[in-house]
Amino acid sequence: xxxxxxxxxxxxxxxxxxxxxxxxxxxxxxxxxxxxxxxxxxxxxxxxxxxxxxxxxxxxxxxxxxxxxxxxxxxxxxxxxxxxxxxxxxxxxxxxxxxxxxxxxxxxxxxxxxxxxxxxxxxxxxxxxxxxxxxxxxxxxxxxxxxxxxxxxxxxxxxxxxxxxxxxxxxxxxxxxxxxxxxxxxxxxxxxxxxxxxxxxxxxxxxxxxxxxxxxxxxxxxxxxxxxxxxxxxxxxxxxxxxxxxxxxxxxxxxxxxxxxxxxxxxxxxxxxxxxxxxxxxxxxxxxxxxxxxxxxxxxxxxxxxxxxxxxxxxxxxxxxxxxxxxxxxxxxxxxxxxxxxxxxxxxxxxxxxxxxxxxxxxxxxxxxxxxxxxxxxxxxxx
Length: 383
Prior knowledge:
This protein is an alpha/beta fold. 36% of the residues lie in helices and 18% in strands. The chain has helices at 9-16, 36-45, 51-62, 76-86, 146-150, 158-173, 199-210, 232-239, 256-262, 271-285, 303-313, 338-350, 371-380, and strands at residues 92-99, 104-110, 116-124, 127-131, 135-137, 152-155, 186-189, 224-228, 246-250, 289-295, 318-324, 354-357. α2 (36-45) crosses α3 (51-62), α8 (232-239) packs parallel to α10 and α11 runs parallel beside α12. It comes from Phytohabitans rumicis.
């Protein structure tokens, strides 16, 4: 099912048991799959001068134009031939929803093989952030997550990942996100899927997002966040990439007994081992690790767990991002009450751990990862 970086055979087998294979695992080749030299070589193979690759790249990454018909500085015949080879449609909009006075916009996409993925734009006064998917579905099986409940369909290609960001960068550039800058500045790999289970394509996507135009979008590496539930070998591999991205560790419990249930991959790599890999990343990159912790009522929000988490993180280059759970329909999981959340924050800060509570966005548009895709699949199935 793709690039299972860092997995041993039992882990691969467990993950595959949750896969739902689609008609095709191969997405059409797109210019975003290639660096500029690769695009130039392909254009030359098609009998066109190499500078056409730069023209296409300038339109796509520099001007955020995804429709070849709008690239009128290319001859019509040339445009059609190059578009067929380098700019196929990767994402077909199924549904686009907005809330928070238009500052939050969620898109549900259908891929070439029918797989569904989601991405979200979030506008703030000082920045525009997009949350993108790296897989269709997810094989990590976290029980409180809508995507985890659906299982894994397949890995996304590099271009399928990048195209989400380019599309939403175009939305921001159109000026429809009132009160926010018109330029995309931050990308978080916190949509559908486990990014480090699609390691090679995610890293290629990061390089494409950060390469200067026209090779890429020209974003700062420091404004890219890659999340993981704790695939330790891949975390250590990421530390050696010499990138300045932020690593976000979805911890959700400080003790192995509970984390084995909430994050099943913990049965392979325990809390101590996962945190050791996180501290290695922080040491090698100088980047503060973000510890993601979904606050789940009467499950992981007890004061003693706040104290234990504080002891594990005290003195480390880490920041805790508490996430009020956005419950999925029919789920037994619910968000912690606000007084419980405030006490959890107090105890962590008393332990000297930097802590914030994530801004909740998009609840009225199925904002949690996987909810919109799940509702679309349910409609298609007649449920």
